[in-house]
Amino acid sequence: MIDRPRHPPHRPQRSPSPRPGGAGGRHGERERPAGRPFGEWPDDVAILYGWHSVSEALRNPHRRFRKLMATENALKRLNDESVPLSVEPEVVRPGAIDRLLDRDAVHQGLFAECDPLPALSLKEAAQNDLLLVLDQITDPHNVGAIVRSAAALKVGAIITTARHSPAATGVLAKSASGGLEHVPFCFVGNLARALEELKAQGVQVVGLDSEGAADLTDTALRAPLALVLGAEGKGLRQLTRQTCDVLARIDLPGAIVSLNVSNAAVLALHIAHRAIGRAR
């Protein structure tokens, strides 16, 4: 169901692994003449760049801004679209933002330093009809795309481990295209134990697995529901598989019979959202 990843060229690590919500990690090798290379901010700073990421954060009353850099064109667009400014922007030339980001980063004239959004407790997350659980999915592009889909399909929370997960910042935030402002995270220490706690609170826990007993569309789903996805190539870890109430697969009719994890997530969430709606 999920493709094995294509391994990118090796790049040396430049900073320690981030804590949840922080800004650390590997982010490219371009030399910059000034400013702090991306990935070297303190762990308690969330970095946002790009139109959707920054504008949605500005519209979020719970997001605390520390700094906002904007080009003249980007600032005009913010004003034209009546985006509220909770912080005085620093008007800069595009090159000033270029120096803070990777070579291929598309910032569209906006860059911000913010406080990370507060995470939910597991008990709070369990109060939602639809949850998404990520079992050590570490690629920030994939997680960001998943967050974007989760926001579109009204996921109440994303549950993942505090370790072996990318920080909600930078590349992930850009890939989420503003979705971080609409789907809170819940970080747990032990995923299997967290799934057991969800089940004890009445949540149906369904793992996506290519060897699942039935197709997800043929699986009885009801709210509250937690869909569990594993990393590309590895899939769900053994203990995670054993803890799920049921394992389900996604059957595809075409010549390509597998999806990458972000595409599998949006398809599974769409199936689950429709099933929950019909069950009411």
TrEMBL record:
<dbReference type="InterPro" id="IPR029064">
    <property type="entry name" value="Ribosomal_eL30-like_sf"/>
</dbReference>
<dbReference type="Pfam" id="PF08032">
    <property type="entry name" value="SpoU_sub_bind"/>
</dbReference>
<dbReference type="GO" id="GO:0032259">
    <property type="term" value="P:methylation"/>
</dbReference>
<keyword id="KW-0808">Transferase</keyword>
<dbReference type="InterPro" id="IPR029028">
    <property type="entry name" value="Alpha/beta_knot_MTases"/>
</dbReference>
<protein>
    <submittedName>
        <fullName>RNA methyltransferase</fullName>
    </submittedName>
</protein>
<dbReference type="InterPro" id="IPR029026">
    <property type="entry name" value="tRNA_m1G_MTases_N"/>
</dbReference>
<dbReference type="GO" id="GO:0005829">
    <property type="term" value="C:cytosol"/>
</dbReference>
<dbReference type="InterPro" id="IPR004441">
    <property type="entry name" value="rRNA_MeTrfase_TrmH"/>
</dbReference>
<dbReference type="GO" id="GO:0006396">
    <property type="term" value="P:RNA processing"/>
</dbReference>
<feature type="region of interest" description="Disordered">
    <location>
        <begin position="1"/>
        <end position="38"/>
    </location>
</feature>
<dbReference type="GO" id="GO:0008173">
    <property type="term" value="F:RNA methyltransferase activity"/>
</dbReference>
<dbReference type="Pfam" id="PF00588">
    <property type="entry name" value="SpoU_methylase"/>
</dbReference>
<dbReference type="GO" id="GO:0003723">
    <property type="term" value="F:RNA binding"/>
</dbReference>
<feature type="domain" description="RNA 2-O ribose methyltransferase substrate binding">
    <location>
        <begin position="47"/>
        <end position="120"/>
    </location>
</feature>
<dbReference type="InterPro" id="IPR001537">
    <property type="entry name" value="SpoU_MeTrfase"/>
</dbReference>
<dbReference type="InterPro" id="IPR013123">
    <property type="entry name" value="SpoU_subst-bd"/>
</dbReference>
<keyword id="KW-0489">Methyltransferase</keyword>
